[in-house]
Structure formats: structure tokens, C-alpha cells
Amino acid sequence: MNLPKVFRHAKILSVGNLKPVFKQPHTLLLIQPLRNETYLRSTFNWNKQPFSTYHQVFYGLKSKSCTVNHNLDLSEGSDSGSKNNGQQGEGGDSGGNQNNSNNSNNADNPGNGNKGDGSGKGGDGSGDNTSPRSPFENIHRTLHILETTLQRPSIPEVYPQVLALPIARRPLFPGFYKAVVIKDPHVTAAVKELMKRGQPYVGAFLLKDEELDVDTITDIAQVYKVGVFSQITSVFPANGGHDENSLTAVLYPHRRIRINELLPPLPANASEAEIISQPVQQTSETSANKEPEPQYATSFLEDYNVSLVNVENLNDEQYNRKNQVIRAITSEIVAVFKDIATLNPLFRDQIANFSMSQSAGNVFEEPAKLADFAAAVSTGEPNELQEVLESLVIEERLQKALLVLKKELVNAQLQSKISKEVESKIAKRQREYYLMEQLKGIKKELGIESDGKDKLIEKFKEKADKLAMPDNVKKVFDEEVNKLAHLEPAASEFNVTRNYLDWLTQIPWGQSSPENYNIKHAMKVLDDDHYGLQDVKDRILEFIAVGKLRGTVEGKILCFVGPPGVGKTSIGKSIARALSRQFYRFSVGGLTDVAEIKGHRRTYVGAMPGKVVQALKKVQTENPLILIDEVDKIGRGHQGDPSSALLELLDPEQNSSFLDHYMDVPINLSKVLFVCTANVVDTIPVPLLDRMEVIHLSGYVADEKVAIASKYLVPTAKEMAGLQNSDVQLQQDAIETLIRSYCRESGVRNLKKHIDKIYRKAALKIVRDIGDEELASEELDNVETETSEKTKTNGATTTTEPRKPLNVPSNIHVGITAENLKDYVGPPLWHSDRLYDKTPPGVVMGLAWTSMGGSALYVESTLDSILSTTSKPSLSKTGQLGDVMKESTTIAYTFAKSLMARQYPENKFFERASIHLHAPEGATPKDGPSAGITMATSLLSLALSKSLDPTIAMTGELTLTGKVLKVGGIREKAVAAKRSGVSTLIFPKANTNDWEELPENIKEGLTGVPVSDYDEVFNFVFGPLSKEQVKQVWESMLASQSVESEDKKEVAEITGQL
Question: Which residues bind ATP (predicted)?
């Protein structure tokens, strides 16, 4: 079938119901050519008025043979006029009614029927044209019929009152569509009612405030008075239909209008339900004829909470189309449009659409529309565009539109310039990159070595390939390598990036050293290196056993607490050797800068990572043993709190992703075994202490020190003095004397110093005994050998072999015994721990704990005035006692008085005695509650005038009611007691477990007496005493004091007489 050219490529676009036009059910098939989209629009003159305005469109597809029901028949071979056989009100209705309403010709019937006369009775044609026709001929005839009959309803020329819609940011211009979103439910309901009533007209006015977004006008000052009279061409739900109260309306402005009067919305108390529930009036010709015509067509909107305005039309002033100024400005606008079109493709499309929509085809014929178009497509300021809209003088409007358009051209030129510059830079970089790649390829083919930067990058990549970097670290590495590749070696950033990559590739990502889970091996290593310390050794063996069962070992945080010199640091090295782990140690004593732990930021000059990252770099494994020394002495300064930084480091839940400030990538420290050392736990922050497993290391007793000295210290000192092959012997009795009279501290550091000193003295004695002549001859031989070597190398300086040690003759023997020990280390520092071989009444040996270990603490009590029946009681305290110890003294004094008053009321000692209590070695501060029973015993001993056994020592806190409370440091106190020659140790019953856990070598020779009440102490040290015995003691004390007083008076009198 040969199709007409215009329908050669066509599709069925829509089927529409034309009942609103014909007053009877008619169906229209609308065909749209694909190659000429504007054909139907130009044919029916629909460029200004969409077809959907006066019929409802139903989209769908039909077959080739399609029928227009009733009057218009498009079926193949049919005659559109054959059915007009005189049907009144039907055949001529399409002509008569339209002629009556629109004053146009009736339908052009190809038959012989009469034309409609406007009464609706035409059309009795016989339809003698019976020759078959093509369906496309019928379509052409139908198009002609529709062109003359389907005239769109005319736009009212005068519409004095309209619904006012405020428009934000840009004004509307006549002839150019604009979509507006309406959110106010009242305005939405009003717009829907307008569409139902066939009065889709509103006034659109620009808001003065750009930030304001409203749908009603409450004050006329909110908007510009000049706006546009617009027709709502279509509405559809906004936001995808999710919000029922909002819709999008497409406005088509027709003409300019001005507000004369604003009718503001209803009061706020108006009920929305009343507005919505009002019945919608049905509009029809019948009802229109019966009901009186309202004053305004929009009177029904008064019931809605919307803005109504009374408006008047604004007409352009008359102008001469041949005016040279107007034609010149028009030409300039067209030239500017051409310039913008070359720079901005979007403008090009808009200009093409505007040209096609102009029926005249010549913009010079309609300069007013050209000015509106220029303003409509420009992105100027709202006030400038409003000025174009308000201009009714065409010349003035053109000038303002040209100004706006010129600014748009400047913006387009600037945008084009920027775009070209960016493209030029990109092209330049692409060209440089391409040439650099070619240069690399040429160098590679020729075998020419690349520059140092390429070698450096290649080295970093080789290192990274050998490491198992996590994905996030690998990503950072790649970014930094790319950055380094584009930096010049002379740039400062180059060195920063290089140093960072150096650190990043030296961290042992995924590199772990194999661990030894052999229990026997670990036990042997620990025993070889250290004597005693069974608690520590058991904990390490437990750690190894768990790792052996699980197949893997997680990092732990251990904290060794003990006095100086007991081997806290050295045991850390032994643990690392037992586990076959790498060892790294750093001290935080006095540290005040948090950057030492967390690292510095890379922005600082000389920045570097923290100690932990440095440790990983040095040991090159992910599972080393890191020893953090002196955590109890960490400082705090204006640069941060390092102890808080250690919280993240030593927390097993957090250190799996430890973030160093310099590295700025998470580092897994969960496999690291952290060992911390401290002397006391009091100065360690509680949150930090909570993250560590504390193991207390007590001081050594004398026999432990002897074993350590014989097994470890003596061989080491002998070798360091060069006497390993000499007959120099430090006798056992000398070691015991050294420990007893020179080195009484809990550790062995001072003992090691003295042993080193002994062997240095011995070395000096041997050298003196050998004589200087033999030594001089050996040195001369060494000098001659060195001179000959230099001569052979022509005077060149060479590294010679180490000097050989001197051979000590076998006939030289040195023995250090207890008798000659003072010749090597000087006179003894202590002769005895005991101040009293026999203690007088009022003197008792107590025990104290210090950071250096345990020590003996004597408490002395004596009368500081003559005892008489008239003397007054008092208590004075000396010995640099701390606050806690002063309170213990007061408690002991009160308890002693109450005990005497309760059990021995006849003894009035505490009612008449003025007592002085003293703790010897006043230069040493003393504090703590554990001397309570010692002080009470001292006071009672004085009151009863009864001496205690000098081999008894005691410790325990006393309450006012006589209860003996638990104390700490039993091991250290037991060591001090044994060192002081004590045979009986009284301690609180609550410390029985601590006593039982003591090694047998400490408890050997000591008898422990656990007590829970002071009565047990009293009975043990004083024995059973009757009231009569105690009364006699008081009377004898009082009598002796009186005799002494009389003797003193006689002496004084004799002295006065002389």
C-alpha cells in the first residue's frame, strides 16, 4: 500500500473522546508522523493550545482500519458523507452547533447535503459519491474537517478576578511553559476544582523574596504587581504520587496583567473540612441556563483558603515595526543568540524550538516575543527579568532583554574559556604521560638505567610484594607510590612521602617468628637465667601450655611489680628466649610526650612513628616480646598524657587495630606479648592497671642471694674482670658476710656492684704482683707487630686484630674470705639488723614494707616525766610518722588504756603517766597501718614494766576493739625478720594463706603465729598475769619513782649549798 509521504512513518498517538465539543459521543484517532513531529500541530494550529485542553486523551494502539464513530468514518472504502442522509441534529450538528458558537463554517460534506444553517438541522445529503476511496484520503478529508470544526475554546480577553499563584525565583513570560509545584492542600483543591469547571486560569506573580516558598499571598507587598495570566494545561501528582496534597501544574502564560486588589485567604480558623465537603457544582448547558450568572467566574473560590486578585490586562504600547532602533536591537539580539548557540548547545536547541513555533517565520515581525524569549531562556537576576516583564514599551523591553542576554553571553564565554583551559591542561598531561611512557619504553629497550626515582619506586614495590599487607594498607601504599611518581625529587613533599613509604614497607606485615611451645625447653631457659621467681615461671609455662593446646598464642599484658634489682627486666629477656620471640625494650619513666607512644603527625618536620612501630621495624616480626619499663614513673605534661595513650596499646580489645599518628593505618598488635615493670602499683593509673595482669616479685632472702651470687654474679664478674682463667676465689663465707653486712636490700643489684668491685680489686692486685717489666715487654711486642703491619701496607692504616689478653701465671692465687673482705669493699655498713640484743620494757620489734623490700621497725616507749599520784597523762610521738601511722598510735594508746582499765583496773599507769613514743631512724619517713599491734604492745610493755623476747617480731593493723586486720607484704616482712634474727613472727590470721605460700627456705627457722584478736597477742608475749601481779607492778613503779624523786631533791639541795 502506497502511503502519503507525511504518514510514511507514523504511529497511532492517542484516541480521544470529543463529547465536550460535539455534545455527542465521538471518537478521534490522532496519528503522529515520526519524521515530522510538528505536522499535526501546524495543521491544527495546536502550537499555542495543547489538544489535551479540551478532550481527555486515552493512549493506545489501533489497527490500520480505524473508525471514527458516528459522523466521521475513517474505515477503508467508506464515504464520510454517506451517512449524512438528513438526520436532524446529527449530520449537521458538527457544523450547525459550531457555527452557532464559533461563527465558523459547518462541516464540508463531500455529498450533496445542505450546509448547516446554525440551527442544527442541516445534512440531508444523498451521498451519491459512492466511489471507493483510500483510508488515507478519508484521513485527509477528516483533517480538513477537524481544522474547520475543532476550534479550541477561545481564551477570555477579560478575566477580572483570578486565583493568584506566587512564583519563586523567576517570572513567567507569555508563550513559554512553566511547571509549578503546589504544596498547599487548599490551593491544590482549588486548582482541581478549576480544572473540573473548565476554568483553568490563574495569575502568576513573582515573589520578591527569593527564599520564600508559599502558595498563597497574604500581603500584596510580597509579590511584584505585574504578572501573567496563565492557563493550566495539565496537572499531575507531585513526588511520584506519594503526597496527595501536592501536585504539579503546567502553566502556559498568555498575557501580562497587573494586580489591582488582593483578596487574602480565609482566616486561619476556617475549617478545612467545610471547604472539602462542599458539593461540586456540575457545569452543563442546562444548569448554566437555569442558575444566575455570578459576579465573577471565580466566585466559587471564595470558599477556599486561597489568594484571589482583581487584575487588569496590560497591553504593549503601539510601535512601528520599521523603527530602525527596534530593528537594530532585534538584529543584535539575534546575533547574540547565534554567539551563545555556538558556545552552549542547550541554547541551540531552545532557539531551534522557538523558531519552529513561530508561524510568521520572521522574528523581526514580532520583536515583543523575541524579547520575552530572550528573558525566558536567560539565567539573569530575578529583578532584571521582572523589569523585562514589566516593560510595555517594546524598545525599552528589547534593550533590557539585550542586557540580560549579553550577561548570559559573558557567562557562556567564561564557561567556554574555563572548559577549554581544563581540556588543555588535561590534554597536556595526557601528552606528557604518553611521552614519558614512550621514554620509559625506549630506555628499557636500550638497557639504559632509569633515574633514581624509578629505582626507588621499584624497590618499594618489591618490598611490598614480599609482605602480606592488609587491603586497606595496600590501598594507602598504592596511593603514596602514585604520589611519589608524580613528585619532583627536589620537592619537600618528596622526602616526606619517601620516608613514609620506607616505614610502611619496613613494618613486618604478616611476618611472624616461629614460637617454641616446648615446656622443658622453656623451664630450662628460665632456670638457667634466674633463681627463684617461681610465680613468674609458672605463669609463663601456663602461657606456653595454652598456646600448645590452641595452636596459636594471643598477646598478653603482664606487669611485674617488685623492688629494684629483683630481676624484672632480665626475666623479660628470659621469657623472650624461652618462647623463641624477638625482644625489644623501651622505658617510659619520666615520659611526658604522648607522641613517643602514638607517633608524630607527618606534617611536622622530623616526624616519626611511636616506640611500638619502631619496635616492629627493628624486630621484623609481628609477635615480639616488648618490655615497657618503669610504667609507674610515667609523667604527664602539656604535650599530653602518655598513660592514657598506653590504654589503647595495652587493651587486648583495641590493640588489634592500633592507630599510630604517623602511619595513619591500623596495625595489628594482638600477637605482641607486652611485659611491663614497676616498683609500686600505687602510682599506676587505675584504668591502665586494670588492663594488666600483675605479678608481684618479692625481695630475695640471704640464702637466695648466696645462690644467685654463686651461680650468676660471680662467674659474670670474673669474666668481665679478665680473670676467668685465673685462680681467684670468692669464698662462701665472704659472700654471706657481703650480703649480711654490705648488701641488705631486697634485690641483688647492689650485691652485683660489690662483687664487681671485689674482682676489679683482685685484678689490680694481680697486675701489681706480676710486675711492670713483664707487662712492658709484652706491650712492646704488640707495638712492633702493629708497626710491621703498617709498613707492609705502605703506611696505610689497617684494622688490627684485638689485643690478646695477658696470661696470668699459674703460681698466682687470690682468695677473698670474710676476714680480708674489708680490704676489697671497705668497712661493713651494717653490723647487725638488731638495735637491741636485749630489749628493755617499752621496746618492741615491728616489721615494715618499703619499695626496697622489708625491714625491721622498732617502736620505743618511755616515760618523759616522773610518775606520781598527781601527775597527768599525755602521749607525744616522734620519728617522722605519717598521718596513717599517727592515727595508729592514737588507736593503740586508746586501746592500751581500755585494756588496762578493763582487765587490771588497779593499775593506774595510763592515768598518771606522760609517755613518749618514738620510731628510730627519724630521717626515714614512715607510714602505714601495719604497726598497730606493735605500738600497743610497746605501750603495754611499758605499763607492765615487762621486757619482750628480742627474737619476737610482729605486724598487723589494730582496731579500737582489739581486732587484728590483714596487712600486705608478708613475704618481704618475713625476709626482713629472718635477716634480723627473728625466730617468732606474729601476723594477722587473715594472712595465713600468704604465710603458707612462702617458700620453705624463707620459713625455715621462723615460727608463724597467726592472731585475730589482740588478746591472743597479749597472752603470747606477756603470758598469763593476775590482777594482783599487775597491781604490785604499779605500786613498785610508783615507789621507785618517788625514791628517785627524793634522791634528786637531795642532790639539788646539796648542789645549792655548795
Answer: 562-569
- On the question of pLDDT at 55 being above 50, the answer is no
All three cell numbers of 453: 626515582
How far apart are alpha carbons 492 and 496 in whole angstroms?
Answer: 7
Catalytic residue check, 930: yes
- The alpha-carbon radius of gyration of the chain (Å, integer) is 57
Read off the pLDDT of each residue in 440-464 and give the average, rounded to a whole number.
77
Does 752 lie in the same domain as 658? no
Render pLDDT for 316-345 as a digit per residue (tens, 0 to 9).
888 887 788 888 888 888 888 788 777 776
Q: Phi and psi of 220, rounded to 5°?
A: -65, -20
The reply to whether 1048 falls in a domain is: no
Domain count, the chain: 7
Half-sphere exposure of 924 toward its Cβ, with a 13 Å CA cutoff? 13
Residues 6+ apart with CB under 8 A from 65: 74, 75, 76, 135
Binding annotation? 562-569
Render the burial of 565-597: b for 16+ CB within 10 Å, e for the rest.
Answer: bbbbeebbbbbbbbbebbbbbbbbeebebbbbb
Q: Kindly name the residue from 537, 671, 926, 973 that is annotated as catalytic.
A: 973
Q: Is 400 a catalytic residue?
A: no
Evaluate whether 594 touches 642 at the Cβ level (below 8 Å).
yes
SS3 category, 398: helix
- In-domain check, residue 441: no
Q: Is the pLDDT of residue 929 over 90?
A: no
Helix (H) or strand (E) holding 483: helix 471-485
Calculate what percentage of the chain has a pLDDT beyond 90: 14
Our CA dihedral for 208, 211, 212, 213, rounded to 10 degrees, sits at 120
- Which of 401, 263, 255, 276 is closest to 336 using CA atoms? 401
457 CB burial (10 A radius; 0-12, 13-18, 19+)? middle
- The rounded distance, in Å, linking the Cα atoms of 143 and 720 is 121
Please identify which of the residues 930, 938, 941, 980 carries the catalytic annotation: 930
Assign 3-class secondary structure to 86-141.
CCCCCCCHHHHHHHHHHCCCCCCCCCCCCCCCCCCCCCCCCCCCCCCCCHHHHHHH
The angle formed by the CA atoms of residues 1045, 1049 and 1051, to the nearest 5 degrees, is: 115
Residues 6+ apart with CB under 8 A from 984: 949, 951, 952, 953, 1006, 1007, 1009
Neighbouring C-beta atoms of residue 820, cutoff 10 Å: 12
DSSP label of 760:
H
Ranges 13-17, 203-207, 787-791: which has the least confidence: 13-17
The residue with cell 603458707 is 996
Enumerate the known binding-site residues for ATP: 562-569
In this structure, are strands 625-629 and 673-678 parallel, antiparallel, or unpaired? parallel
For residue range 830-855, what is the model confidence (pLDDT) as tens digits?
A: 776 667 778 899 999 999 887 666 78
- Residues 496, 413: one domain? no
Specify whether 692 is located in the same domain as 711.
no
Q: What share of the chain is helix, strand, coil (3-state, %, to 5)?
A: 45, 15, 40
- Answer yes or no: do 687 and 747 share one domain: no
Where among 419, 439, 462 does a domain terminate?
419
Q: What is the span of the domain harbouring residue 898?
A: 843-1040
Question: CA distances (Å), 934 to each of 603, 667, 844, 888, 894, in order?
Answer: 62, 55, 6, 10, 14
